[in-house]
Every structure is written in C-alpha cells, then in structure tokens.
Amino acid sequence: MFRYQTIPVTAFAQNCSIVWCDETRDAAVIDPGGDLDRLVDAAKQLGVALKAIWLTHAHIDHAGGTAELAGRLNLPIIGPHPGDQFWIDGLPQQSRMFGFPPAGHFTPTRWLADGDTVQIGRCTLNVRHCPGHTPGHVVFHSPEAQRVFVGDVLFAGSIGRTDFPQGNHAQLIASIRDRLWPMGDDTVFIPGHGPESTLGEERRFNPYVKAA
After folding, report:
1. Which of 68, 112, 187, 200 could serve as a FRET partner for 101 with CA atoms 20 to 30 Å apart?
2. pLDDT at residue 118, as a whole number
3. Class of domain 2-205 (CATH, top level)
C-alpha cells in the first residue's frame, strides 16, 4: 500500500513529501527544498529507508537541498523533465537571491518525460509533464491511492505563478485541464504549498481554472 507524509520545509513552507511502500518500507522524498536533518529524522521516525529523490521542478524552495541530500545518502535524483536544466544550473544563484543555504547544482540520475513511471518498493506512480510554472515541471500520480503530487502547478484556490523565466500561463492552464482533470474529481492533490484539496473541488470552484 502507498503511504505518504508531508513535511513543510524552509521559510517558504514548501510541502516536501516522504512517500513509501508500506510492504517494503522503501521510500522516496519529493522536493527536498531544505531542512534536511528534519527530513532524515522524519524518515527514521516513520521506519522507512530513503532510496531516491523525486523532483517536480527545480526552483530553489523545491530543489535546494537535493545535491546535499543525494551526496549525504547516496540517493539517485529522479526528475524533473529536461526543460528545467537552466533552473538546476542556476540553483547556486537562486540560493543567494532568496537567502537559502548554499545550493549546489546537479545532474539528475534520470530525467523524466510525460508517460514515464517511477517506482518505490511495490508502488508505481505515473509521471505527467505539466509545464507552465516551469518548462520542465512534472507531477507524480498514484491512481491506486487517488493521490497526485503536483508541485506548484495547482493550489487550493489558486494556481502556480507564471511570471518567472520561461513561465507560460496558457501552458499552465492547458496542463491543468488536459493532464490533471482526467485523473478524476475524487483525486486528492498535494500541492507545493498550502493545504490539500481535490481536483473536483478546484475544477468547480477555483476562480483561476473553474472555466478551464
């Protein structure tokens, strides 16, 4: 059975999630933006073994701790899509600009594309490429658990910003409409910031996308 726990990290209160297979206790960490000691301690408390880092996109609040955590625990870095290469290259500059601890750039062990899958233990999640907030943004969907980790694509009552370099508002709306809505109204999404919601709730009431 697929399980997860979300831990807000850094001053940006970014929702980092530890996801794991209840049978094997193997785990991945989605978007380790920082506060790495807290994340490692949380994994120990949960009794799970971190085996991989999965990235939705490469903004500093989501990827700032990636290089250090990968080096510390010898973890493969899975994702995002190659469209975010320039954001990865700019992580050291991003960390200085936003007052984060020094962040190193890295080369993902495996880039992701739309239609790929990722696996932890006996749990498989589907990868959808959802550009707009960043060009290489991906989301991780577990149809079995009816959960999707959407990074900064969609929020409860809002959507991701598109005023950063290579952001694209029309592309973001299309990603939400064409990639997220078909996952079903009952699917719960875990956003990069703020509370969880369901896709159906946002499709009906979110003022930014209810007409999409």
Report:
1. 112
2. 98
3. alpha beta
